[in-house]
Design a protein that fits this description.
- There is one protein chain.
- With 682 residues, the protein is of the alpha+beta class.
- The chain is 35% helix and 20% strand.
- It has a 5-stranded mixed sheet with strand order 2-11-10-3-9. It has a 5-stranded antiparallel sheet with strand order 14-13-12-16-17. Strands 21, 22, 23, 24 and 25 form a 5-stranded mixed sheet that branches.
- Strand 4 and strand 5 form a beta hairpin.
- Helix 12 crosses helix 13 and helix 16 crosses helix 17.
Length: 682
């Protein structure tokens, strides 16, 4: 490859092969042969080489699995073969009738079947060309689906490159594990966001995220179970097809079984009806397929479903019980979550005593009351939740569930941060229930970037009583820190102390974000740091001054104003100042070559990451805005631009292609770096 040393090309190829092999060992076989540290070292090396030689970056590189692209939308793709749905049954009588029909139409006395667990996920079609993933398509209406290739690349169990250079299309299911679903819903609950009803909904929503970085964070998984045109690979049975899929390094469900007759099917169904709770993913039944592919043509299909396969589903499980009381939990972000205390009831193999009521809007919409008899189920077989009250069973003694007038932890005021928000929160920014989350935000990369201060250590620090607010981090006794328990040795303590010292000199924007001011994210923090220049000036700003800043409305302005007038805030700031935390913004070196110009970026550019493009403009005196107005000087339009392009044309704002943008920069004397990677700029 031009301008790339041959030894680098060979090293990149070797790294990709190694990483994909270890992905296969870890995510498909669940049998890793190297440590996480060794794996990360390989990945870091590949990333560094692709950054140094961007012409080596390819769509099938393992580095694509981390996401990073922000899409404008999804294109429609026609399926090569219709993706059908399955007929289903819930009874042994009907599954035996299915077998009788198969035997009658084929003239056989006995038919062998393959039984597979029915994964409750999202159907996907994967096309490979020359052994490389070409396109991933959702089911859609069965005839036409959506191209979700970039999202699917983040699913580690789906190979980007096959061990054989074959052209093949396979189909399967993408799903979310129970443990991952629980983790995500816990985080959404703490953030006051609506909970996903079940892992399938969460999977569907994730696959359709435009920001592939968010897709990667949710750790989706897959099982592949079908080959389009299996005869083209000399495959004559479904069981052979599953084994060929394994050979190609696809993840095939290990519990699939070939049985000789319908009695084997019924036995398999009963076995997994009892064992399904032992799995870390949801199944809602089994799929039964005739094994002999030669019989498929004889059996045919209906308008919607193949006649050689059927879903033998498990019965749904709900339980009836009574709400004895309602308690309110306060999450790490201050969200108040109502929880129903129940008369104990058996549900999905466990005794349930408590169930989520989600939020107070949910209670109101369902008209749920204390004393109600209710139906309870497990959302996605995981989180117990109250489905609905049994109104007919009321006797008049039921009580309305009221929103607390104050926080049950600190006694502070409660309410919504914005009118549109569903969650009721404790509005005291220094509520003890929020302390762990406050420290996480303070130590985060966008905050004070304190390496080594992770969730587990934060739990120990707070639970031990060593710190009562974020400022206490700078006054910790190293000797007491070393006594917190296993894993915190002299080296850990020394490194943490060094990181805390380094953090005192972070930019003002980082400090503003780290304070956890309600409604102030990292982007707003940068704007505020640039506008005020010091924490003191920012803290003393009036609501009117704050509202003059673009993007800050009356609600956010009031949140900021109230935060700095809280007595606890004043004490924390005094302690931070005493610790030596820098509270003024160092004046950046700005060339002024683009002074007075305002840019908006939209679409996909080829030479810059988002941060690089913004920093290049800002460092040369320009202003970068997230929205188009008459004051905008230029809108830079990359590939697949969004609505900002339309807005620019409506207002008559000058638009620039990427080449015109670079030409403008160079005409102003700006040094434009050469880059090869693509990045989406919204």
């Amino acid at each position: 490859m031009k301008d790339v040393p041959e030894k680098v090309v060979r090293e990149v190829e070797k790294l990709r092969e190694e990483i994909e092999y270890h992905n296969y060992r870890y995510y498909v076989l669940n049998d890793p042969v190297i440590t996480d540290e060794e794996y990360d070292k390989l990945m870091r090396r590949l990333i560094s080489l692709e950054k140094k030689y961007p012409q080596l970056a390819t769509p099938d590189s393992p580095t694509q699995r981390v996401g990073g692209k922000v899409l404008e939308g999804f294109t429609k793709v026609k399926h090569s073969e219709r993706m059908m749905s399955l007929d289903n049954t819930y009874s042994e009588e009907e599954i035996r009738a299915f077998d009788a029909r198969i035997r009658k139409e084929t003239g056989l006395g006995k038919v062998a079947y393959v039984c597979e667990l029915k994964i409750d996920g999202v159907a996907i079609a994967l096309r490979y060309r020359g052994g490389k993933l070409s396109v991933a398509i959702t089911r859609g209406d069965g005839e036409v689906g959506e191209d979700v290739t970039e999202a699917v690349k983040t699913v580690r169990s789906i190979p980007l490159v096959l061990p054989e250079p074959v052209d093949i299309e396979v189909r399967g299911e993408i799903y979310m594990s129970k443990s991952e679903f629980t983790r995500i819903n816990r985080e959404r609950m703490e953030e006051g966001l609506p909970l996903f009803a079940n892992p399938r909904n969460a999977t569907a929503g994730t696959i359709h995220q435009l920001d592939t970085t968010e897709v990667a964070k949710r750790r989706l998984d897959s099982f592949i179970y079908y080959i389009v045109n299996p005869g083209g690979y000399n495959i004559s049975s479904h069981w052979e097809a599953l084994n060929y899929l394994k050979k190609l390094h696809f993840k095939v469900n290990p519990h699939s079984r070939r049985v000789e007759d319908i009695d084997g099917v019924v036995e398999f169904w009963h076995q997994w009806l009892e064992k399904r709770e032992s799995l870390d993913y949801n199944i809602d039944g089994i799929v039964v397929k005739v094994d002999d592919l030669g019989l498929y043509r004889i059996l045919g299909e209906t308008a919607k479903s193949p006649r050689w396969a059927i879903a033998f589903k498990f019965p749904a499980e709900q339980a009836r019980t009574k709400i004895k009381a309602v308690t309110v939990q306060v999450g790490r972000t201050g969200v108040l979550t109502p929880v129903a205390e129940l008369e104990p009831v058996r549900l999905a193999g466990t005794t349930v005593k408590r169930a989520s009521l989600h939020n107070f809007d949910y209670i109101k919409s369902k008209d749920i009351r204390i004393g109600d008899e209710v139906f309870v189920e497990k959302a996605g077989d995981i989180i117990p939740q109250v489905v609905k009250p049994i109104v007919e069973a009321r006797d008049g003694d039921e009580e309305q569930i009221e929103i607390p007038s104050k926080c049950p932890v600190c006694g502070g005021p409660v309410g919504k941060l914005t009118e549109d928000e569903v969650a009721i929160r404790c509005l005291n920014p220094h509520c003890p229930a929020k302390l762990k989350r406050s420290i996480e935000v303070f130590a985060s990369r966008d905050g004070m970037n304190i390496m080594g201060l992770g969730e587990k250590l934060i739990d120990r620090l707070v639970d031990s009583g060593m710190i009562e607010d974020v400022a206490d981090l700078y006054f910790m006794d190293p000797f007491k820190l070393a006594q917190l328990g296993p894993g915190i040795g002299p080296k850990t303590v020394s490194n943490l102390m060094k990181e805390l010292e380094k953090s005192k000199n972070r930019p003002l924007a980082n400090l503003i974000y780290a304070l956890g001011i309600p409604s102030v994210g990292s982007k707003t923090a940068r704007v505020l740091a640039e506008r005020f220049g010091s924490l003191e000036a920012f803290a003393n700003a009036s609501i009117q001054e704050l509202m003059e800043i673009e993007g800050i409305g009356p609600e956010v302005a009031k949140n900021i104003y109230d935060y700095f007038r809280n007595e606890k805030t004043k004490k924390i700031l005094e302690k931070l100042k005493k610790a030596g935390v820098k509270m003024e913004e160092a004046k950046p070196s700005v060339s002024g070559k683009l002074q007075g110009l305002t840019f908006v970026l939209t679409g996909t550019l080829k030479r810059f990451t988002r941060k690089e493009a913004e920093e290049l403009l800002v460092s040369n005196g320009a202003r970068v805005s997230s929205s188009v107005s008459k004051k905008t000087s230029y809108v830079v339009v990359g590939e697949n631009p969004g609505s900002k392009f339309d807005r620019a044309r409506e207002l008559g704002v000058k638009t620039l292609s990427e080449d015109e943008f670079i030409e403008l920069l160079r005409s102003k004397g700006v040094n434009v770096p050469e880059r090869g990677e693509q990045i989406s700029l919204l």
